[in-house]
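Below is a filled-in request sheet from our internal design queue. Each sheet records the structural input a requester submitted and the sequence that came back. We keep these sheets so that new team members can see what a complete request looks like end to end.

REQUESTER: design group, bay 2
PRIORITY: normal
MODE: inverse folding
CHAIN LENGTH: 680
BACKBONE (tokenized):
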């Protein structure tokens, strides 16, 4: 009876989620301290723009007015332009004849399988039905446990928990077996307590996709809706024990997930869940150390893992499985899935198949595509130029640490040791040997292969490789991401800063750009990524990539105080009246923007006749962006500040900027020295 009441309560809570009471449409022109110029439609020709009051607007107004969000996307701007170039470049690689070499041919064949609509339409949803049938046949928790253990991972409909290899945070030279909860449809567990406006958009879109998929699979409309309701009911019961997105983005999250169990302790902690059996069936060896990401989440899942809740659990798996598979099935399912993504992101229209599928291949077979992309588009002279810049900015960063007045000599020494241990990586790896896909094979369409089978083969291959590599020392020379991605990043586990090849393209970088423009666009982001080694998260890891306390107690307290001041600074801002920012999750990225700018300004000071106007305007162009409302909601809840804040908040910290433009007290861009929030 108690379990029945809990299910009824979850269903009642679910009903409350379906009809949130939202306020009237807000006035999006009421942002403080600056207009939220990133949101589409906010800036008009009549909007006043004075660089002393709103530099982001003044520097970018003409571009904002001319900018249109590309069809099929939720935002436009500088970074999007580079993404569009990357997608076009990758697309063009697949439109000619089949390339030479095993790995390149795999990528080509996968692309052809995605384009083979005759085969995909002939299969329809039959492959998914085959995965659902064993789940529908389960009539007890014991049989569900047997299903998880006996079913190969590539044939498993959807996970209820995850367990597998991850890099050990306390000893980054080795792997650990990590255990955690499966994801939720709405992603953020906070949405199940109070559904936000964006959460409602996401929920409606996913529900519509799931309903169509389930009806196509043979369920009646009523059966489909019941399964969706059951899925959300199960997630609603589980969600209070799971970390929220805000929890996961806070610096103390790393410490929260450091829960290590011996084999015997893990056996006791798993309860009726077949976690250890599943790991053994997958091929992982028994070990003396397991990491449980969220003990409360595991306990809650065990509490719910009962025969009474079996219908909800099965429907959770079926709805997730249908949602996850939609894009890999026939044309109708593919278009439903595309419409769902558009509704969530705020995009409109569809990209051509060649563009979508070439990008999908680059995600599924990262390194075969990356090697081909590097050979086709990237140049050694650009790799060398950016590497030289990375070394120059790393050198400049010494001054930032040496002049940090809140550090004692002991902490400063460790910080410099970490800085000097950072390994810069430019555009692409120097060797491709460790990225080979030897042992992976599937048939292309000319041999009767199907996309469904190829995806299963790739998944099985990747899992087998993880199992094989688990006992071995972590290869720290291996890049965490391929050069086909428009990104750059700091990796705490390896203490590396990486500028990926596809990022240094188009309006972000070209070989004929001025020194000022390259420093503003690439240089500031190099400094940004270095800074992540010393932000509120990176500061928890040492020069070897291990979580370790290298601070004195007094220094760390001062560091926390400085971060709190920055948090308060962002909490006082609003994109529009009634909508908050979340400073608690933004200090890492915002602080990295500011410290990165500080490092590059140190470099600029050594340049003769440096053009500061060109530099600051190029920095504003770097963060030019126009968002759909949904994209703005994502940004508001993201660790990265909205783009207009990345311009204005960063620049107003520096006398070099304020003095150059004659900005003084009373101007919108002015920030008094005592109110500045730069941490480093």
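RETURNED SEQUENCE:
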């Amino acid at each position: 009876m108690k379990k029945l009441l809990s299910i009824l309560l979850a269903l009642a809570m679910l009903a409350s989620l379906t009809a949130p009471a939202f306020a009237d449409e807000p006035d999006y022109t009421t942002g403080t301290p600056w207009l939220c110029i990133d949101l589409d439609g906010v800036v008009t020709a009549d909007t006043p723009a004075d660089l002393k009051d709103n530099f982001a607007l003044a520097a970018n107004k003409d571009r904002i007015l001319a900018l249109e969000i590309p069809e099929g996307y939720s935002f436009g701007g500088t970074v999007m332009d580079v993404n569009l170039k990357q997608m076009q470049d990758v697309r063009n690689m697949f439109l000619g004849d089949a390339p030479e070499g095993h790995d390149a041919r795999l990528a080509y064949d996968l692309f052809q399988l995605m384009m083979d609509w005759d085969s995909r339409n002939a299969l329809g949803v039959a492959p998914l039905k085959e995965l659902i049938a064993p789940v529908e046949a389960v009539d007890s928790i014991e049989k569900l446990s047997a299903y998880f253990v006996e079913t190969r991972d590539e044939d498993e409909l959807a996970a209820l928990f995850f367990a597998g290899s991850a890099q050990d945070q306390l000893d980054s030279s080795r792997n650990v077996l990590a255990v955690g909860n499966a994801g939720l449809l709405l992603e953020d567990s906070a949405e199940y307590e109070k559904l936000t406006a964006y959460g409602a958009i996401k929920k409606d879109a996913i529900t519509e996709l799931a309903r169509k998929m389930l009806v196509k699979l043979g369920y009646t409309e009523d059966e489909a809706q019941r399964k969706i309701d059951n899925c959300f009911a199960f997630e609603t019961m589980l969600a209070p024990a799971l970390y929220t997105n805000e929890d996961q983005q806070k610096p103390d999250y790393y410490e929260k997930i450091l829960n290590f169990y011996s084999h015997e302790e893990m056996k006791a902690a798993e309860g009726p869940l077949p976690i250890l059996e599943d790991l053994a069936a997958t091929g992982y060896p028994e070990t003396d150390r397991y990491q449980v990401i969220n003990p409360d989440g595991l306990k809650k899942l065990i509490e719910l893992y009962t025969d009474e809740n079996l219908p909800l659990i099965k429907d959770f798996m079926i709805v997730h499985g249908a949602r996850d598979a939609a894009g890999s099935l026939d044309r109708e399912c593919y278009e439903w899935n595309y419409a769902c993504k558009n509704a969530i992101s705020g995009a409109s229209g569809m990209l051509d198949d060649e563009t979508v599928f070439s990008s999908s291949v680059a995600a599924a077979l990262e390194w075969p595509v990356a090697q081909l992309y590097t050979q086709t588009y990237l140049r050694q002279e650009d790799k060398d130029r950016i590497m030289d810049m990375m070394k120059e900015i790393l050198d400049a960063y010494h001054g930032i640490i040496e002049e940090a007045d809140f550090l004692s000599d002991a902490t400063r020494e460790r910080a410099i040791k970490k800085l000097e241990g950072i390994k810069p990586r430019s555009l692409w790896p120097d060797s491709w040997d460790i990225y080979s896909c030897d042992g992976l094979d599937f048939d292309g369409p000319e041999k009767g292969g199907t996309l469904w089978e190829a995806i299963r083969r790739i998944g099985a291959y990747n899992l087998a490789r993880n199992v094989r590599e688990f006992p071995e020392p972590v290869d720290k020379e291996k890049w965490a991401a391929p050069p086909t991605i428009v990104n750059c990043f700091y990796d705490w586990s390896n203490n590396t800063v990486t500028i990926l090849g596809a990022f240094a393209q188009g309006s972000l970088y070209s070989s004929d750009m001025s020194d000022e423009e390259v420093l503003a666009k690439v240089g500031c982001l190099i400094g940004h990524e270095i800074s992540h080694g010393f932000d509120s998260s990176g500061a928890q890891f040492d020069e070897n990539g291990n979580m370790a306390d290298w601070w004195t107690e007094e220094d760390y307290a001062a560091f926390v105080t400085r971060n709190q001041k920055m948090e308060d600074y962002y909490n006082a801002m609003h994109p529009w009246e009634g909508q908050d920012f979340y400073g608690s999750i933004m200090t890492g990225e915002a602080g990295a923007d500011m410290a990165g700018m500080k490092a590059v300004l140190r470099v600029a000071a050594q340049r003769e006749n440096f053009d500061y106007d060109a530099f600051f305007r190029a920095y504003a162009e770097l963060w030019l962006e126009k968002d759909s409302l949904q994209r703005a909601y994502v940004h508001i809840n993201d660790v990265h500040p909205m783009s207009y804040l990345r311009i204005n908040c960063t620049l107003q910290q520096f006398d070099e900027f304020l003095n150059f433009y004659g900005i003084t007290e009373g101007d919108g861009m002015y920030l008094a020295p005592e109110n500045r929030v730069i941490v480093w």
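SHEET NOTES:
- Residues 1-23 have pLDDT under 50 and may be disordered.
- The first strand starts at residue 75 and ends at 77.
FILED BY: M.R.
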